[in-house]
Design a protein that fits this description.
The complex is a heterodimer. By secondary structure, chain A is mostly helical. Chain A has 9 helices and no strands. Chain A starts with 6 loop residues before the first helix and ends with a helix. By secondary structure, chain B is mostly helical. Chain B is about 75% helix and about 0% strand. In chain B, helix 4 packs across helix 7, helix 4 runs antiparallel to helix 10 and helix 5 crosses helix 7. Classes of the chains: A mainly alpha, B mainly alpha. The interface between A and B is large, with 77 and 68 residues. Chain A: Belongs to the binding-protein-dependent transport system permease family. HisMQ subfamily. Chain A: InterPro entries: AA_ABC_transptr_permease_3TM, ArtM/GltK/GlnP/TcyL/YhdX-like, MetI-like, MetI-like_sf.
């Protein structure tokens, strides 16, 4: 087929997936930092912080990502005039990263919290019984076990984040799904091929990622 | 809260004072943050009464929000029914002992779980019309996309559920002379469905949120009608987005609460789950957050 030999189409394909990759990478880092902070708030002894964490999770977990990203564009950028970069594409990119991060952070937070919950209370009690301090209990006993059990949920959050990155196309970033839409509209005789190439690229990256995280989680699992 | 009991003791007098001080400090910080956001929107004139007044008029609700909500719920309901059917068929197919059924079923499920929903909706909406030489309505584009994705996720959930039914159940059924299809239909699926009910309901939340993707292909759902069309008339895009977000949050919170209630209810009389070959962790992550 001549679609994928045409250099302009190859460029569009590559840049589309590069945007997805950049969105996923940048949002994963931001969401991880934010999610850890939120999880720390949600398990902290300070009621105000707990309330803030809970409110964040309930708001963003129950709002469609399309709406979150839409709000980032029309609310933060159009209305409040928050401009994150001079270049139009870069600005849309960073607005997308903001939307993806605040949304994904809610899921990261829940993954961490459930990870902490999988550590039996007896572990901390035993740690205290042998005289470990609070910091030692956390550092040596609780968090290492919790970290192992969040590997699998982190994997699925990361995969979902990568797939969700396509939604940033809504606010005008020409990422993979938008490229696919444009190609379909120009090459009506090869729609199945176009879909299979784009969907196949996602599948080729994400299915092994899923198995990798499954393997890793299995390997790191705390045997109880 | 069990998480707090792992991490720290019940607060003593000094910890109580410290927590109170931290509460005040962070509380003030939080209020300052909210106030800052409020003033930012205020400077942009977003709290003006004329932007919020449309929501006190009944025509706003009857013409924009309620029809949009109805379209969202319709797509979610049809998508859910089809996803359940799709999930059931492919779960049973993947558990089949004939490799020419189980391998293709597994491939389909793995493939559609890994492909972004938006890509499928675009394919059905923009691509399929070229194949069938006729238009595809936005409704079916959304519903088919939702079915393929959520059906695949549910197929994995069902498969885990069917495998979690104790082996003695199917052995006993074979012993009383049932055929394979009868064992699946009368013994395994009913028990698996009960154990999987909370996951099914929480997947419904994901599905309902995903109907918002219909906005991108101009399906007149809640976002399209409630934000785009409404603000085209009144110019209150931020106000409309906030109202629509609150509607989504209310509906999804109710569904989440339902899932939690079902989990507690079914949890008390769940069948004994035997030691599984695969770790539970791999199965418990099947519900993935989606847009």
């Amino acid at each position: 087929m001549d679609i994928f030999t045409d250099p302009t189409n190859i460029d569009a394909y590559v840049s589309g997936f590069l945007w997805i990759l950049k969105l996923t990478g940048a949002s994963a880092v931001c969401a991880l930092v934010l999610g850890v902070l939120l999880a720390a708030m949600r398990v902290s002894p300070v009621p105000v912080l707990r309330g803030f964490g809970t409110a964040w999770v309930n708001i963003f977990r129950n709002t469609p990502l399309t709406l979150v990203i839409f709000f980032c564009y029309f609310g933060l950028y159009s209305t409040l005039g928050l401009s994150l970069a001079d270049d139009l594409n870069l600005n849309n990119f960073w607005l997308g990263v903001v939307g993806l991060s605040v949304y994904t952070a809610a899921f990261v937070c829940e993954a961490i919290r459930s990870g902490i919950n999988t550590v039996p209370t007896g572990q901390a009690e035993a740690a205290r019984a042998i005289g470990l301090s609070f910091a030692q209990t956390l550092r040596i006993v609780v968090l290492p076990q919790a970290a192992r059990s969040v590997v699998a949920p982190f994997g699925s959050v990361l995969i979902a984040l990568c797939k969700n990155a396509t939604i940033v196309g809504t606010i005008g970033l020409v990422e993979a799904s938008t490229v696919m839409k444009d190609l379909i509209n120009s090459y009506g005789n090869a729609v199945i091929l176009i879909f299979l190439v784009f969907a196949g690229t996602f599948a080729a990256f994400l299915i092994p990622t899923g198995y990798f995280f499954g393997w890793l989680a299995n390997r790191l699992a705390v045997k109880r | 809260m069990s998480s707090s009991s792992v991490l720290y003791d019940h607060p003593g007098p000094r910890a109580k004072i410290r927590n109170a001080v931290l509460s005040v400090v962070f509380g003030v910080g939080l209020i300052a943050l909210l106030w800052w956001i409020y003033t930012k929107f205020d400077q942009a004139g977003q709290w003006e009464a004329r932007l919020w007044e449309p929501f006190t008029e009944s025509t706003t609700w009857t013409q924009f929000i309620l029809p949009g909500l109805w379209a969202t719920l319709k797509a979610a309901a049809v998508g859910m029914v089809l996803s359940l059917a799709f999930g059931l068929i492919f779960a049973v197919g993947r558990l089949s002992e004939r490799w020419w059924i189980s391998v293709p079923a597994g491939a389909v499920v793995e493939f559609f779980r890994a492909v972004p929903l938006l890509l499928m909706i675009f394919f059905v909406f923009y691509g399929v019309p070229f194949l069938i030489k006729g238009p595809v309505s936005a409704f079916w584009a959304v519903v088919i996309g939702l079915t393929l994705y959520n059906g695949s996720v549910l197929a994995e959930a069902f498969r885990a559920g069917i495998r979690s039914v104790p082996g003695g159940q199917s052995e006993a059924a074979y012993a009383v002379g049932m055929r394979k299809s009868q064992v699946m239909r009368l013994i395994l699926i009913p028990q698996a469905a009960r154990a999987m009910l909370p996951i099914i309901v929480s997947q419904l939340v994901v599905l309902l949120k995903d109907t918002a993707l219909g906005y991108i292909v101009a399906y007149p759902e809640l976002m399209q009608r409630g934000i785009n069309d409404l603000s085209a008339n009144y110019g209150n895009i931020i106000a409309a987005a906030m109202v629509v977000a609150v509607i989504y949050i209310i509906i999804n919170s109710l569904l989440t609460a339902l899932a939690g209630w079902l989990e507690r209810r079914t949890g008390t009389r769940r069948v004994r789950v035997p030691r599984q070959k695969r770790p539970v962790a791999a199965d418990s992550t099947i519900v993935e957050p989606q847009g």
